């Protein structure tokens, strides 16, 4: 699959979210980090802001729920306009049921793993998912340094996906930049969340194009 870039609005100017969303409309997704100050030690935004963002941009919304009780809240983000919803397996009470509900409501179902959470215990869940997110930093704050020790986990996850013959995406989030995206792509990731690398650039749209080119070059995908 061709690499996809999902800029994270966590690194955007929150006073200008509509403009910041439009600034990256060449991206594949707009990554929306939802944090509740319980599952992670930070508080960001919720359903009303997601609904407003959905009206402000044509880019589909990729909502990453870093919250407690995603079983209860995830459906509301789909109703607000999210095209993809990611829940953390560490927080979900019934991940299979939740993934099926997300799909039934018309969104892509994705499951996230913290850096210390192994993929192997969840191998049987993979067919229920459209995407799996391997966190390459501890969730909760933007601008963190990429954890190189996650690269073997990305490789193992890709091997499991391929072993089952699944057409699911493998996303990475945390410290993704021009310096790290090629390593992630070579390890098997194909969806890349980038916050600071995009929104700290003078031209965010150009930064998206450059990240896409680097990922394509690393994998020999079309466009490289």
From TrEMBL:
GO cellular component: cytoplasm
One of the GO BP terms on file: pentose catabolic process
Class of this enzyme: isomerase
Enzyme Commission no: 5.1.3.1
Binding-site positions, a divalent metal cation: 31, 33, 64, 173
Pathway as given in its UniProt record: Carbohydrate degradation
Cofactor binding, note field: Binds 1 divalent metal cation per subunit.
GO molecular function: D-ribulose-phosphate 3-epimerase activity; metal ion binding
InterPro entries: Aldolase_TIM (IPR013785), Ribul_P_3_epim (IPR026019), Ribul_P_3_epim-like (IPR000056), RibuloseP-bd_barrel (IPR011060)
Domain of life (superkingdom): Bacteria
Keyword tags: Carbohydrate metabolism, Cobalt, Isomerase, Manganese, Metal-binding, Zinc
Cofactor field: Co(2+); Fe(2+); Zn(2+); a divalent metal cation
Amino-acid biosynthesis recorded as keyword: no
Pfam families membership: Ribul_P_3_epim
Binding site for substrate: 8, 64, 140-143, 173-175, 195-196
Active site residues of this protein: 33 (proton acceptor), 173 (proton donor)
Protein family: Belongs to the ribulose-phosphate 3-epimerase family.
The protein's name in its UniProt record: Ribulose-phosphate 3-epimerase
């Amino acid at each position: 699959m061709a690499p996809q870039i999902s800029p994270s609005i966590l690194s955007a100017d929150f006073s200008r979210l509509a403009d910041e969303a439009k600034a990256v409309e060449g991206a594949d997704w707009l990554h929306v980090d939802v944090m509740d100050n319980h599952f992670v030690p930070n508080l960001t935004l919720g359903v009303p802001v997601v609904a407003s963002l959905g009206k402000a941009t044509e880019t589909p919304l990729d909502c990453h729920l870093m919250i407690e009780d995603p079983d209860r809240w995830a459906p509301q983000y789909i109703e607000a306009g999210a095209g993809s919803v990611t829940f953390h397996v560490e927080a979900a009470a019934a991940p299979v049921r939740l993934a099926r509900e997300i799909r039934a409501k018309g969104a892509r179902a994705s499951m996230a793993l913290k850096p210390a959470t192994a993929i192997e215990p969840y191998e049987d869940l993979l067919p229920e998912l459209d995407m799996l997110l391997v966190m390459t930093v501890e969730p909760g704050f933007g601008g963190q340094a990429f954890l190189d020790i996650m690269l073997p986990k990305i490789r193992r996850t890709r091997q499991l996906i391929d072993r089952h013959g699944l057409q699911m995406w493998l996303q990475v989030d945390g410290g993704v930049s021009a310096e790290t995206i090629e390593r992630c792509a070579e390890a098997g990731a194909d969806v890349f969340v980038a916050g600071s690398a995009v929104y700290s650039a003078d031209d965010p749209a150009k930064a998206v194009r450059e990240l896409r080119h680097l990922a394509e070059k690393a994998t020999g995908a079309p466009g490289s």
